[in-house]
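The data layer described in this paper is built around a simple, fixed record for each protein. We quote a single record here, exactly as it is kept in our systems:
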Amino acid sequence: MADTIKRSTGIAGLDLALDGGFPPGARIIISGSPLSGLELLAQQFWQAGKETGTYLMLDTVPDEDMIDARGMDAAALAGAMRGERIVVDSLSTLIAARGIDAATRFVLEDTRGITDAGANIVYLLYTGLHTPFEEARMMRAADIFITLRHQVHGNEFERTLAIEKLKGADVPQRVIPYHIIAKGLELSTTSRVV
């Protein structure tokens, strides 16, 4: 994987943390609360670069250029995936509607031809909705697992991103602070020494 040209995440600080971006063919799960900015991260990835992509919206009315995937079965979802940058929003809806076994099969088997061809698929997983068993199954299915966390300290938000799984590479040993700005997520690329 070291010689593979990586695909930009659309966020300079995250590309730096991932040593260039996502390896082609990786299954990426981004976990966080609905207020953590995970949808913004997914959209930044989807819209980055000159490659084509598909954004499958399972949760609500899709924005412009997204595909309304509400009610699609696994075969239709996989059949709608086009391009190198694919987002499934959200894996949580798939788990709730079809169960953990079907969701795991979708991530690992139903989309295998797409990832084998080099496309990246980003799945959104909302925290607080699933059992620890369901979360563990999804973590095991992912090649890359990223968690977005936020806490309130007094009158300030503290937001951090953690790359918790990175198949075939060293996992970064620190969390990365980030901000939500008008154009999406912005990661700190400097380390603070205390």
In short: Strands lie at 27-32, 53-57, 67-68, 85-89, 120-126, 144-153, 156-166, 176-181, 184-187. The two ends are 35 Å apart (CA to CA).
